[in-house]
Specification:
There is one protein chain. The protein is mainly α. The protein has one domain: Arc Repressor Mutant, subunit A. It is about 50% helix and about 10% strand. It has 5 helices and 3 strands, in the order ααβααββα. It has a 3-stranded antiparallel sheet with strand order 1-3-2. A hairpin with a 2-residue loop joins strand 2 and strand 3.
Length: about 130
């Protein structure tokens, strides 16, 4: 009898973004705090990680860099992966060719929400 390997579906990454009606995020820090509202201490780590990714483009940051990052920033491996999964779930970061890269997914998602809301309400977007 041939044993079958168990297959797993590709995990879907999701992150909940905190929206505060009528209150616009005015700083980059506040934007990251709205993404990491459940773990506010990770907001600063995530912002610094994204800055590092921007500097490392187009090669990206190897996925094996977690060890250096956790030692240098004094965070646990679990915190690193929670941060990485939060950024991936929000669409800000993607994994490609065994490296982390900045992604345009977050912006595409916001643009899509803006277009949907605009067509629903008839309100004109100021972004053009």
């Amino acid at each position: 009898m041939v044993r079958r390997r168990r297959t797993r579906d590709k995990a879907t990454r999701r992150t909940t973004l905190m929206l505060k009606g009528g209150r616009v995020a005015i700083t980059l820090d506040e934007l990251f705090q709205r993404i990491f509202w459940r773990s506010p201490e990770l907001a600063n780590e995530a912002r610094e990680f994204c800055r590092m990714l921007l500097e490392s483009e187009p090669q990206g940051l190897p996925t094996s860099s977690w060890k250096n990052w956790t030692m240098r920033r004094n965070i646990s491996v679990g915190q690193f992966y929670n941060m990485a999964h939060g950024l991936i779930g929000a669409g800000m970061v993607e994994k490609r060719n065994r490296a982390y890269h900045i992604s345009s997914g977050f912006m595409r998602e916001l643009e899509q929400m803006l277009m949907l809301y605009s067509s629903f309400t008839g309100f004109e977007s100021r972004l053009k």
